[in-house]
Amino acid sequence: xxxxxxxxxxxxxxxxxxxxxxxxxxxxxxxxxxxxxxxxxxxxxxxxxxxxxxxxxxxxxxxxxxxxxxxxxxxxxxxxxxxxxxxxxxxxxxxxxxxxxxxxxxxxxxxxxxxxxxxxxxxxxxxxxxxxxxxxxxxxxxxxxxxxxxxxxxxxxxxxxxxxxxxxxxxxxxxxxxxxxxxxxxxxxxxxxxxxxxxxxxxxxxxxxxxxxxxxxxxxxxxxxxxxxxxxxxxxxxxxxxxxxxxxxxxxxx
Amino acid sequence: xxxxxxxxxxxxxxxxxxxxxxxxxxxxxxxxxxxxxxxxxxxxxxxxxxxxxxxxxxxxxxxxxxxxxxxxxxxxx
Lengths: 254, 77
Hints:
Chain A is mainly alpha-helical and about 250 residues long. Chain A has helices spanning about 5-15, 35-55, 65-115, 125-155, 165-210, 215-250; strands spanning about 20-25, 25-30. Chain A has one domain (about 5-250). In chain A, helix 2 runs antiparallel to helix 3 (about 65-115) and helix 4 (about 125-155) packs parallel to helix 6 (about 215-250). The mean pLDDT of chain A is about 90. The radius of gyration of chain B is 18 Å and the shape is elongated. Chain B has two helices and no strands. The mean pLDDT of chain B is about 85. In chain B, about 85% of the residues lie in helices and about 0% in strands. In chain B, helix 1 runs antiparallel to helix 2 (about 45-75). Classes of the chains: A mainly alpha (about 250), B mainly alpha (about 80). The interface between A and B is medium-sized, with 15 and 13 residues.
């Protein structure tokens, strides 16, 4: 049907970053300077989050209704199920704003990618990498600032360890911190990118084979619904695991 | 459709993704099986167990996607 269609190039072009935004009627819109497509998506997601919480959220209602109720449901869920059980009362309450910001930002970026003309900013390592790096900074420098060097030592190494094993354990624990943050980054990035690649592959099958590939469109719709679920789930998993790791470092059980 | 000679990167990428999919399928199946059994034993814990189940699925799928990304890089180089 379309003779010059290269499936590989089609998928990679839609999934990776670029300096233009391909709109349907105005053609490719060149983005100025250092602003790339994924950076623009991050700005749009941040604007939506700010709009939701500063403008749409009404503080003066005694009983929350509508969007206010929906946002409160999410925030209360993050406070009561993620922050406080993992980080204790005091730390949980003070970390809830940061966890809520992370959750809503990642959720908005994931959901924006599902709208046909927009791109997924979290499907890029350069976006999820710094977020995971911030969590890593919170784990190491945060423990240092909060509990001091002794606190960092007690968080990494259990007190009942024989002295001979301490260098080995130290190396393993530092490596484990880095690997866990790296896993946070790769989990979110790979889920988002792979989901979009699957949808684009199914649509590309239809272009390649013509009308016999109609069931591929149905599969693409099904995977699209799965992507919607995965968007929420991955944001929740990122925030949950950050809360668990921070709780483990700030309040070590051993 | 242009036929092209497959090189080693493409063959190994396919094999890698297939193997990781086997692991992920077994893992997710075990998680769901134990979750269903636990819910059958104690229906009042459905919400808590469902939350744990989804966390388990996300973690196992994360590993499989990580392998998929590496295999995708193997196709290129």
